[in-house]
Design a protein that fits this description.
The structure is a single chain. By secondary structure, the protein is of the alpha/beta class. The chain folds into two domains: about 110 residues, Aspartate Aminotransferase, domain 1 (Alpha-Beta Complex); about 220 residues, 3-Layer(aba) Sandwich (Aspartate Aminotransferase, domain 2). It is about 35% helix and about 15% strand. Strands 2-8-7-6-5-3-4 form a seven-stranded mixed beta sheet, sandwiched between helices. Strand 12 and strand 13 form a beta hairpin. It is globular, with a radius of gyration of 21 Å.
Length: about 350
């Protein structure tokens, strides 16, 4: 095969891309490795998407996603000008790194966290420094001292699932008025406190959420940001320098319908939280420790297995979980919370493996 890597732009060969979780081929797997919601989306969302497929598809979607942003504004009690939507929260994070963090100083984020953060920083040429988690795997805002070009904190953190209190985020943002504090709330609906109520007193906070987890729309790819209108304008400038039509017509209508179905949302998140607590209790009965979880996953450590052994043993029984490389990650696996039946199946397998 002809090697054409000499035609690549400078720096492409040095990029280490993010590695997504495995998507298995074939049936019979219990897939607990990518933090997807085990339940079907809101019927209202499905109906809206079906309608969207049948109308106006020859036309481009609204580049401003205005109706979806109005829905977000109503749901979260903010102005439409304080909302932004994108093709999943990952796209919005990529835009945010360019919009806010190419400034003097270093970008700060935890050393054990979402592994896309260092990818974005390197891609945009942003100097960064990772802040070690405490011995109990918690984030201590007191460790984020001194000047910075920006701060990124997932809340709850991934893959640990541990959350900060809203007051801690407020103190951190007020201690750093010179930069944006981006709070990545991909899993906030499963037990953490959103930073959105802080925006009036902390205008330097940018909150990013996704409909992939608590809204069962990972396949739709819709995320959103809520922030001061001036910071939203920066995201819009970056987006419109790449592609003004990042959210298609089906996604806009489906997402708006989902966000309007609060009863479905409340019931589904309640079920996942209840299943998580049952599963954690079952793991503890088996001597498997977990960190305190406010997410739709748990970070679990077996007393005798390494993370790779844990992963391999479950995979032999067609259960997919996720292991990570790096300091302090060699014993823990991340296990998504599925249905009661799925999690009971995992516990039954683990009992056999003892």
């Amino acid at each position: 095969m002809t090697d054409l890597t000499n035609l690549w732009s400078r720096g492409i060969a040095d990029i280490t891309p993010y590695v997504p979780g495995e998507q298995p081929q074939g049936d019979g797997w219990i897939k607990l490795n990518t933090n997807e919601n085990p339940y079907s989306p809101s019927p209202s969302a499905v109906a809206a998407m079906m309608t969207a497929c049948q109308a106006r598809m020859p036309l481009y979607p609204d580049p401003t996603s205005l109706e979806l942003r109005k829905t977000l504004a109503r749901r979260f009690g903010v102005s439409v000008e304080s909302t932004f939507v994108g093709n999943g929260s990952d796209e919005i994070l990529a835009f945010a790194f360019r919009a806010f963090f190419q400034r003097d100083g270093e970008l700060l984020f935890p050393d054990v966290t979402y592994s896309f953060y260092p990818v974005y920083a390197r891609f945009w040429g942003i100097p960064f420094r990772t802040i070690p988690l405490r011995g109990d795997y918690t984030i201590d805002p007191a460790d984020y001292q001194g000047s910075a070009s920006g701060i990124v904190l997932p809340n709850p953190n991934a893959p640990t699932a541990i959350a900060l209190h809203r007051g801690q985020l407020q103190e951190l943002a007020q201690a750093h008025p010179e930069c944006v504090v981006l709070v990545d709330e991909a899993y906030v609906d499963f037990g953490a406190e959103s930073a959105i109520p802080l925006l009036e007193t902390c205008p330097n906070i940018v909150v990013v959420q996704t409909l992939s987890k608590s809204w069962s729309l990972a396949g739709l790819r819709v995320g959103f940001a809520i922030a001061h209108p001036t910071l939203i304008q920066a995201l819009e400038r970056v987006r419109d320098s790449f592609n003004s039509y990042t959210v298609d017509r089906i996604a806009q209508l489906g997402a708006a319908a989902a966000l309007s179905d609060d009863s479905w949302f409340q019931e589904t998140t309640r079920k996942i939280i209840a299943t998580r607590e049952r599963f954690v209790a079952g793991l503890l009965d088996l001597g498997i420790e977990t960190l305190p979880s406010s997410a739709n996953f748990v970070f679990a450590a077996h007393p005798e297995w390494s993370a790779q052994e844990f992963l391999a043993k479950l995979r032999e029984h067609r259960v997919l979980v996720r292991a990570f490389k790096g300091p302090r990650l060699d014993r823990h696996v991340r296990i998504t919370i599925g249905t009661d039946m799925q999690m009971d199946g995992v516990l039954a397998i683990l009992r056999k493996l003892r």
